[in-house]
Every structure is written in C-alpha cells, then in structure tokens.
Design goal:
Length: 693
C-alpha cells in the first residue's frame, strides 16, 4: 500500500497512449500475475506491493479542439476541447470513466513527450473527473521491463509545462487552419456558388511557400557556360594511368580549351611536386528522428512518414528507445555494455560488437561519440537489446540501420590519406592527379553497407619521375540551378528553419502530397499548390512567413521549458490571424475571383484524360457518380452511343500521363497516393498490365 498526498492509496489507474504500450507496461509491472480483462477496451489488472494496479489505454488523442457554438463563421477564436466524434473513441472514454470510479490514484503512463502528456492530461481532467489535480507522471524512454519499473516507482508530479505547450500548439494550429481554410473556401463559394476543399496551415503554408520559391529559382535559372579540362597521364616508371585535372579549372574561354588540347595531347612531362595529407573521420553521431528519416531515405528511399511509423512500432515492441527525439546524445545510464552484450547474441552483429568491446577494454573506454543536439525528455535513438519479432522487409532495414549506427558511434576514428601529384609538361602546363584512400576504416566497417570505406591504394611516384599525356578532353558545362527538394532534404530544411517539430514534419509533408499541392519524389509544386500559395502571398502574407512560424515555435518551446506563458503565446497567435483577416475583408471578392479562376482551370486540367479509345470522337474525363459518390473515367459521349467507362482508385490525385499502354494501346493515368507513392494505371479493365507500381 502507499500514500499519495494525505490519502491512503489502494488502487492505481495507469493511463497509456496505445494498447500495445499498455500491455508492455502491465506485464513489466506484474509479470505472470497480470489478468487481462475486456475485449473491446482491454485493460490489465495486477497486484504490486499489496496495491491494485489497473492499466488501461487510449487510442491516441481522444479529445480535440472544436468551435464553441454552431455555424460556419470566420474568424473564429472561441474553441473548446471535446471528445472526438467517433463511436470507438466514445466506447474507450466510457470504459476509462468507469475504471476511474474504482481508483484512488492516477498515473500518466503515455509516451513521454508533448503529445503523450497532453493525451493523458485531457483524459485525467475530463474522463477521470478532474484527476489531473493529484495525478503523477511516469517518465521513460524505452519499454524495457527495467526502465518501466523504475519509472513507476519514481513517478513524479505531472509535467504541466509540457502539457501547456501541447495545448497551445493544438489551439494555435486550430485557429490558423480553420480560419484560413474557411476564408479561402468561403471566398471561392461566394464568387462561384460551388464548393472546393482547400486548406492552409501554420506550418504547412510556409513550407509550401518555400517549395514554390525553390521551383522559381530553378525555373528562372540562366545557365552560364564554363569549360573544364582533364587528361589521362601515364607514369612511365610503372605504366599506371591516372586521371588528372588541369590546375586552372574551370577554364574561362572555350577557345583556350581547344588550344590546350592541341598542345598537351601526347606531350611529356615530369612530376614536380608530391603532397601527402592525412585526415581523420570521427564516428557518426547517434540518431535523432530527423537524421534517422534522412538516412533511411538516402539508404533505402523509405519516406520519412513511413520511417517514423516503423520506428514507433519498434519502440512499442521494446526493441528501440523512443524515436521522437531531437537528441544526438546517449547517457551512460542506458547501460552501453549491457545493450551491446544483448545485441551480441545476434550473429549479424556479434563480430562487430566483440571488436568494439575489445577496443574498449584495451584502455580506450566504452564511450559513444556525442552530438550537440539535446532533448530534455529523451536520449538519442538506440536499440535496447531486445530482439524484435516478425519484422517485415522495411522494418528489418530500419532496425539494422539503427543498430549499426549505435555500434558505429563506439568505434575508433577512421583515417584517410590523400596524395596530390603535380605533373608539369614540357610547355609549362600543369595537371594534378588527386587520389584518396581510407587507410584505417575504423568505425566505417561497423556501419557498412551504409558507408563505404574504399580500398584503393595511393599511387607510388617520386618527384622528377617522367610522365606522358595519353589523352586530353575539354568539356563545356553549364552552371546548375539549386536541386529540387526531396523528402529527406525537405525534412532538414524544415528543421533548420524551425518549421514544425520532430514529430510533425513528416506528417506535414505527407499532407502536402495528399492535398495535391506537391508531387514526385523530386518535389514539384502542382498548379493547385502554386495557386494557393499565390493567394496566401497576396492576402495572408504573414501566414507564409518562415520567421513568424519560427517565432511561434520558439515561444511554444519556451512554454515547455517554463520560460513563457501559455496565455501570452495563444494571444500572439490569435493576433496574427486577426490582422490577416482585417487586411483581407476589403478584398474578399477579388480573393474569391482568383480562387474560382484557379479551381476552374485545375478542374479542367485534372478532369481531362484524352480521346476515348472506344468511340474515337469523345473525350475521357474523371467523373463522380451522383448516386454513389465514387469516381470513375467515362466518355463525354456517354448516352449518345458510347458506354465506355473504367474504374479508378477512390483516393489519390489522378492525372493523365499523356501516353498509352504498351500492352493494349489504351490511355494511362497516374494516381499519386500517400507520400510520393505512385501508380500508373491503364484504363482498359481487361489489360493484364493494368496496374504498375
């Protein structure tokens, strides 16, 4: 038994975020003495130290901000938190409320981050009848038995600054998203009499604006020509041939390049100088979420939202620590040697770990390389030593990446040697041979195949040695525009500029895809996305500002750290929205006209597929059935002699490819699904090649 405040406690209720986490926590605390009760809303009961413990789960957020009162109005700032309207959520809330009536102590056992703290707080305050006033908080970074027991026994008061930061983030995002989206849709509706789902958001809009700016840079780039010169040079002492760069690259004039080729090809020379250099390559930092998402995209082309989802699954299995972290540091308290010893039972990692432990025991110590980024709640992502079970292919890849990164952080420094050989030709021209070689792979061999050490040796040569030019080539090149963003580089851009949080960035990118605002793995802004940005730039300029969004993010982080007041930050966000609407009211009609013109143009573009392969005179269009609401492709001559139609997926952005199927000659369309996943579909339902991934 125990005491909480001045009351004698016999029954604790633990509120978890997800069912799988509730099960892990219950069995960690109760072992074989756990009793699972219920089906629709399973909960667990156990005895611990003479006390009854009930562990119950939410299913993520059960409450959300909604408009106070009725009516489609804007601007609207009055909001309340209410249960999400969903039958399953209602059942969970009813069961949690019933269990709360049996308990006299309450503990938040949700994921230890802003969202988890907020989920538990809303449940404790509402479903548990104000239990937040005396509730406590379990703080853990992995779902291992040892850490969960420690977190339970050391549960402290609720983390109210983190909870208030979560409240204000959701409320400001609601104020931005609801008001701006309603304004755009109302302006369109009043002008056209129609309805179109359009959206904008506090982080979504400046991110989309940045993508448009990058598209503009690429489109407006004027390539400038330049020339480079290279040669194949043979060392006469051993016959080795190397590629050498002209020492004055780039050459500024094309005519100079031609003259260089003419006088140097077949010429002889001598090595006039050799420079040797050695450098060290330190081990990598441990993963934070953003770096894990970027590395997984680089290595496997796994999209950031999917990497995050897989990592969260590995965490719930107890295989890795909490993934939504911005830390690049690992504290000794996680037990470095213990984790490595557990991982060593896997033959894939045993050899590497044996070498790491031998290196440490030889007097080097067992210390990972630490990065600069920290997180007050969680360490960097690391394996726990618990082997995951039943992983699918992408899950295996992400887990292997995390484990090898963790092992590599303990590895010795890698060493690289480079050699620069200057060859001076008879007529005074100089070419430079540059070769690099990793002389000691160090940590790199533990992180393979995600890094390659290379094994090419350095060329053996002496000053004064004779050489001969076999071939010279001069290339005309052009300056390149900045590269398009991919999902990995966009995550890093958002992180650098304070757009979103470690938990939300992948979701925001995914939303831009789902809205049809962007497309492709090499990201392009669509006509719809550009049109929305143009409207926002003109009438809601503050809402596409990276500076404004970064300022609000910093203020919300300050709430979490206890340096800023919840009310002041919420008022600041509301003032920004109010000012934007004050500026827009006088131009409401022109805004509507702009959007109506944009939507009409895009509907025409999106709806047209191409000529009908059946009647040859009609045009195929995307049509939505009035009866079922489902979309399909039909001919404009339907009812006038042509009955051609073809089914379509009901989700995703449909666009014509402008081409035909190689198998049957029918038109093809592209459907952009979640993230940048793309289907190419032949409109002949009987074609064996109908769907291509």
């Amino acid at each position: 038994m125990g005491w909480v405040g001045s009351g004698f406690v016999t029954h604790h209720l633990l509120v978890c975020e997800k069912p799988s986490a509730a099960k892990k926590i219950a069995y960690a605390l109760g072992g074989r003495g756990v009793v699972k009760i219920g089906r629709g809303v399973p909960f667990y009961r156990l005895q611990r130290g003479g006390e009854t413990v009930t562990v119950v789960s939410a299913i993520g957020h059960l409450y959300s901000p909604v408009q106070q009162g009725k009516g489609w109005i804007f601007p609207v700032f009055n909001l309340v938190w209410e249960p999400i309207r969903n039958r399953r959520i209602r059942v969970f809330l009813e069961e949690i409320a019933r269990l709360a009536g049996e308990a006299d102590s309450f503990i938040s056992a949700c994921d230890y981050d802003t969202e988890g703290s907020l989920i538990a707080f809303m449940i404790l305050r509402n479903a548990c009848g104000g239990a937040d006033a005396n509730a406590r908080r379990m703080k853990f970074s992995s779902l291992t038995r040892e850490e969960l027991i420690k977190a339970y026994e050391n549960a402290a008061e609720l983390d109210m600054p983190v909870i208030m930061a979560g409240l204000v983030r959701h409320e400001i995002d609601w104020i931005f998203g609801v008001n701006v989206s309603r304004a755009i849709m109302d302006a369109y509706s009043c002008n056209s009499g129609g309805f179109e789902v359009l959206s904008a958001g506090r982080v979504q809009s400046p991110t989309l604006n940045a993508l448009c700016e990058r598209d503009d840079e690429i489109d407006l780039h004027v390539p400038d020509p330049y020339w480079t010169a290279w040669a194949e040079i043979k060392l006469l002492s051993n016959g080795e041939v190397f590629q050498a760069e002209y020492y004055r690259n780039p050459i500024l004039e094309g005519g100079e390049g031609k003259a260089l080729k003419s006088r140097c090809e077949g010429a002889s020379g001598v090595i006039q100088r050799i420079e040797n250099c050695e450098s060290v390559i330190p081990p990598p930092y441990p993963f934070d979420l953003g770096e894990l998402q970027s590395e997984a995209y680089r290595a496997f082309r796994i999209q950031p939202w999917k990497t995050q989802k897989i990592a969260e699954g590995l965490y719930l299995d107890g295989a890795i620590s909490y993934p939504r972290t911005s830390s690049q540091q690992l504290p000794p308290s996680i037990g470095f040697r213990s984790i490595l010893t557990k991982l060593r039972t896997n033959i894939v990692y045993s050899e590497s770990i044996n070498e790491i432990l031998s290196y440490a025991d030889a007097g080097n110590g067992l210390w990972p390389r630490q990065g600069k980024k920290t997180d007050p709640a969680h360490p960097a992502i690391h394996p726990t030593g618990v082997a995951p079970k039943g992983l699918k292919q992408d899950g295996e890849k992400i887990y292997d990446l995390i484990v090898k990164r963790f092992i590599a952080t303990f590895g010795p420094t890698a060493r690289k040697a480079s050699r620069s050989i200057e060859v001076k030709l008879d007529r005074g021209d100089i070419f430079v041979i540059k070769v690099e070689s990793v002389t000691d792979p160090g940590w790199m061999k533990y992180y393979a195949p995600y890094t390659k050490a290379g094994s090419a040796g350095l060329p053996e040569a002496d000053e004064g040695e004779e050489a001969m030019v076999d071939k010279v080539w001069v290339e005309e090149r052009f300056t390149e525009p900045p590269p398009r963003f991919n999902q990995s580089s966009l995550i890093k851009f958002m992180e650098r500029n304070g757009l979103g949080t470690k938990s939300t960035r992948a979701e925001i990118i995914n939303t831009l895809y789902k809205r049809g605002y962007i497309s492709g793995s090499s990201i392009h802004v669509t006509g719809l996305g550009r049109g929305v940005v143009e409207v926002l730039r003109k009438h809601f300029q503050d809402l596409v500002s990276i500076g404004l969004t970064r300022d609000l993010e910093e203020r919300m982080e300050a709430i979490e750290e206890g340096r800023e007041d919840y009310t002041a930050v919420l008022i600041r966000g509301a003032e920004v929205v109010k000012k934007a609407f004050d500026d827009m009211v006088s131009e409401f009609d022109s805004v509507g006209a702009e959007i109506a013109s944009l939507v009409k143009e895009l509907r025409d573009q999106r709806g047209r597929i191409g000529p009908c392969p059946s009647c040859r005179t009609g045009e195929l269009r995307v049509i939505r059935s009035r009866k079922t609401g489902k979309r399909f492709v039909g001919c404009s001559n339907y009812g006038r002699g042509c009955s051609f139609s073809a089914p379509l997926p009901q989700r995703g952005v449909v666009s014509t490819t402008g081409g035909t199927c190689k198998g049957c000659g029918y038109p093809t369309v592209t459907v952009m699904g979640v993230g940048s996943r793309r289907w190419k579909i032949c409109l002949n339902p009987k074609c064996p090649l109908r769907v291509k991934y």
